[in-house]
Amino acid sequence: MRKVWLLTLGAFTLGLDAYVMAGLLPVIAADTGTRVSLAGQLVTVFTLAYAVCAPLVAGLLAGVRPRLLILAALAVFTLGNGLTALAPSLGTLLAARTVAGAGAGVYSALSTAAAAALVPEERRGRALALVMGGMSAGTVLGVPVGVLLAEHTGWRATLWLVTGLGAVALGGLAALLPQVPAGPAVPVRARLAALTDRAVAPVVAVSFLAAVASLGLYTYLAPVLAAAGGVREVTPYLWAWGAGGVLGSVLAGPLVDRTGRVRALAGGVLAVIAAAQALLPALAAAWLPGAVVALVAWGAAGWALQVPQQHRLLAASARRGTVALALNNSALYLGSAVGSALGGLALAAGPSAAALPWMAAGVAALGLVVHAAAGRRSRLAARVSTLGTYEHS
Fold first, then answer.
1. Distance CA 313, CA 288 (A)
2. N or C: which terminus of the chain has fewer CB atoms within 10 Å of its end residue's CB?
């Protein structure tokens, strides 16, 4: 597991960079003379680049050693953050965030697969949870620090912090990361077939919907809390959401390894996401400690979901190497991009930001419906297969 910790260090930096923007949007909007809804598209381009580049690189560079790709991806990510810190306008900010998102997407997909490959199969759940925990720790530890730093020295200082951490992670991985076993070569036709694989497509679809609901809403957490509960200091609430994320990431892995009930666990956490988001506006308006509880539950469930999701994909699609994981990671960040874009459009159209959690809860509930329907279809197929075997015996 020591080798996995090196990958977790990079994941921590990614988590900080991906989520700190939610706390910086008001400051960046004021500095660039634009609206928060437009500044929110910095999250959209980052996550869209993430979503597109992960499967693209997995397909085009399948023969390249994973270790080299991991280091190259982290270098691109670090460069993108340095360019973000130097960007003079919103246009150049968008371009720099695209570069950072491209590196982050490739690193995330490859580091997750590498973590699973570096440990015995019986410890795979813990390895996956450790990498996911690195990203969630980036939110609980790094994001509030980044927001506080921005408040006192400017938002660019926060991006320089991310750039520095990325450089440290890159140096550590270059020196200490061992060679990672490469997955089997997968033909292009087989890669495309993953999109229609009945074992893969429903899992990826649920990840997409969950990301639209969870990560999309997180982008606008500051205006949501301001509208619903008059909250002006968002940092404690970012802490609460991130702390829940660490808790969920840490607990999900052992639960998967001990029970093996990955489908039931995924359904349960989807239900928690929907309930916590639906209750958030009312709790923020009536009792702020209750809003903190809702944020912890939402963060825990949102981060816990990907451990059983990734476990299911690895079990169902081992023959396709890292393709299924890359598709799932793309779905996560494509969902985040869609959620951020839709949230910005909703705010620009006029509704109060306090309505966004209800919209997000509806999307999470839709994900639960898709998950349940796929489960029923899978059980029916298993019964038919068993019956056919019995009739031929």
1. 38
2. C
Find all residues with CB under 8 Å of 14, minimum gap 6, and list them.
77, 104, 107, 108, 134, 135, 138
Spatial CB neighbours of 265, under 8 Å, sequence gap ≥ 6: 252, 255, 256, 259, 304, 308
CA 180 to each of CA 118, 330, 344: distance values in angstroms, whole numbers, following the listed order: 7, 22, 40
CA distance 380 to 318: 23
pLDDT at residue 321 greater than cutoff 50: no
In this predicted structure, which of 76-90, 202-216, 353-367, 379-393 has the lowest mean pLDDT? Answer: 379-393
pLDDT-above-70 percentage for the chain: 86
Q: Specify the residue for token string 């509880």.
A: 293
* CA-to-CA dists, residue 305 to 133, 143, 206, 291, 332, angstroms: 12, 21, 10, 21, 11
Instruction: Match 């928690």 to its residue by tokens.
Output: 272
